[in-house]
Amino acid sequence: MATGSPVETADRVAGVCICVVCRGSAADNVAVQMGDACLRVCAVCGSWTWFPRESAARQTAVHDNDDYFEHPYFVVRRMVTPALRRRSKDVFLRISKVMDVSRLRGQRLLDIGCDTGVFLSIAHEEFGIVPVGLDVAGRAIQFARESGIEAYHTTIEEAPAQLSGFAVATAIDLIEHVPDPAAFLKAVARRLDPGGVVYVETPNIRSMVYRFGRLLFKLSHGWPKTLMSRLFPPQHIQYFTPASFRRLAQDAGLEVAEFGIRVLPWSDIAASWPALVVIEIFQILDRILGTKILIWAVLRRSLNGPHGK
Predict the structure, then answer these.
(1) Residue 186 CB partners (closer than 8 Å, separation 6+)
(2) CATH number for position 249
């Protein structure tokens, strides 16, 4: 993964804290602090950015190790269950709002951050796509290859040239992990055909779950640490509001073709029953307030001219 991105460099200038979305100041408002690092709120767009910024190499190392791969949350998420098949179908249902997904049969689909390729395998079974994936985790890529998926141990920015010309790509639960989200979306755009789309999901920092986390931090000064690290895992180095995510996509040269927010079904949450009940209470409030926990978007590369330069 490349180092020295514009985001990383700008962060180090005179200790200034710069929002990764709008380049506004995020210096004055600490939302959550963990050790020497903190999430700061942009005064302009409301995005949360992690400071000090992780280097691209460090962020890759955090994800490319056995502890991360074997975390119980991801073990559960990789199980081929009816819930996982439903999630896959729901992704294609949202993509179908902007294109005829039946025409994807026999076409390559690129899943960025594919892990072991379980989503791609289901998409191949259900929709006839040709699965292609990439991930920074070498062990996950090995599993994907063993299941017959064309998979690459790389980032989208450094992927080989043949990974281009896609009608559809997916990047689910990923953009909150990348060191430079604007550069990431521009790199994705370059891999799409003109008129091609990428489906993205990421947490909505306006959700009541995160509001509760911020309040808990203020009241408890970061205790209990286990709960705080579950609410704000250190691998998540930025969070977006619906408005700031739209801005990020548009600044990257992508059209927001479809956009929404959604709740998490119980079957998608790897937590104990007491925690599930608490989360569901917050999600009821989210439904009422219109602050559901996940942002989703179908972003389209323009038919006219190159994008993502």
Answers:
(1) 252, 253, 307, 308, 309
(2) 3.40.50.150
